Amino acid sequence: MSDTKSPDATRRSERSRRAIYDAALALVSETGYAKTTIEGIAARAGVGKQTIYRWWPSKAAVLLEAFLDLAAQANEALGGDDEGEIPDTGDLAADLKYVLRATVDELNNPTYDAPSRALAAEGVVNPELGSQFAEKLLEPQLQYYVRRIEAAQAAGDIDPDVDPRIALELLVGPLNHRWLHRTLPLTHAYADTLVDYALRGLAPRA
Length: 206
Hints:
mainly alpha
């Protein structure tokens, strides 16, 4: 009797899903969001168009999930523990500079830049997508800053009356503004300066 094994459908589906992620991110980077289509993604991934529609309702949904997967991979290299938390070495300035420098590298990476801009732009005209982007990606990342700032408050490094959710915007807000509008280059020196300026304002009052 033959000992052949039946194909592993789960493994095959995961390969297809991964190929679709890669195709969506690559096409957006190469041709832009407007010219990226479900048909193009399917052709690039080597799957049928109906395979994509079985899992996602639109190209925006494909791109969002692909980008969330990309961000999860980037999180592992961002610094901190396995859950993506910001390091707590006891030196708040050093920890924040480490993470903001890694964020600068990520924002300057074309693999991240094109899909992130596409989702940001689409989220303006597609409130549902914008809400999902904020809920699934942006807010969880911002909460890493909240927890690190709260730890710094407990250690006496930041004014206890400071709202951590507002304080973090002193760091990430200017960074994202410069990235989004391309006003000036994003550099490590700029990230370090943001941390220095922000911590002056957040320091405990005498």
